[in-house]
């Protein structure tokens, strides 16, 4: 049974792409928060939470991708499942930046929509991989 490779190649590629994209996402979102704070009257008590949530999201992202990648490569469902759970938090934060942050620009909508799409695709592939590992 162990002669078959169960780890998902598409999932591994997606983790890699997601990692690269998230670096872009993080830098763009950070730059836009700075831009908004200069251009709009950004209330100080909103600036800090937006920045804090972005950094929390970055930490979650590193954990999510690390656990997912490790779980996939070692064909263990536990780290992959944990990565899937963390994805829920990442999705909520992405939706926050899409809908509820102080100022939402068209660029915010685009980059968050792409991120949510990759999360969705990744989650489907994770569930398939977990099912393969468990069976």
Automatic annotation (TrEMBL):
User: Which biological process annotations from GO are given for this protein?
Assistant: non-motile cilium assembly
Transmembrane regions: 13-35, 47-67, 79-99, 111-134
Q: What species was this sequence derived from?
A: Haliaeetus albicilla (White-tailed sea-eagle)
From the Swiss-Prot or TrEMBL record, give the protein name: TMM80 protein
Alphabetized UniProt keyword annotations: Cell projection, Membrane, Transmembrane, Transmembrane helix
Keyword Membrane recorded: yes
Q: Where's it found, cell-wise?
A: Cell projection, Cilium; Membrane
What does the entry list under GO cellular component? ciliary transition zone; membrane
Q: How does it sit in the membrane?
A: Multi-pass membrane protein
Per the UniProt record, the lineage of the source organism begins with: Eukaryota, Metazoa, Chordata, Craniata, Vertebrata
Q: Principal localization?
A: other
